[in-house]
Amino acid sequence: MIFHLKPFRLFILATVLILTYPSISYSEALKTQNTSNPAQNIIKFGEWSYYPQSNPPTLMWWNERMSQNAPILYISFFANKITFNVTTPLWPNTGIIFYLKDKTEKQAVNLILQKRDQNHCYYSAIIDYENRQNFINNFVTSRKARLITPISSHSLSLKQIDKAIQFLLKTHPEINLSQSQDITVFK
Question: Taking the complete model, does pTM exceed 0.70, yes or no?
Fold first, then answer.
């Protein structure tokens, strides 16, 4: 399903994409194809968005119920790693935690502040090759996900993340991940 973004949100998204990826030292640049209206290419999975023009394949989360001061999370999938990038307003010099929890397991990714400019903070983290599949398995089976920031904690809806991951894995076999058929999705 394709949704259109309001012009202001499209402007915020474009600004964040331009500012975030070139500024983070060890994350690869997000490359986009030229399109006449990039908002037409957005595919929504609940609170999550997928941009077919993004390279590497990237899922984005932004809490639309909050003001524009809410953090924006990008999870990018490479053949050898998964990167997390978060753009926030100017906040204290502490990290951000991306937290998953299901019945039996907890997993947290600590995002480190990489850069500050006059308006934003940029955080980043990497899941290495050996831990990518375990992260995918936990991501689609988790009951809870939170983005814990220096200012607040944000609940991330996971109601459709299994569909988003299935779509991503089918359209990008080059990232070398799978969604196991015997995993029970708790939603």
Answer: yes
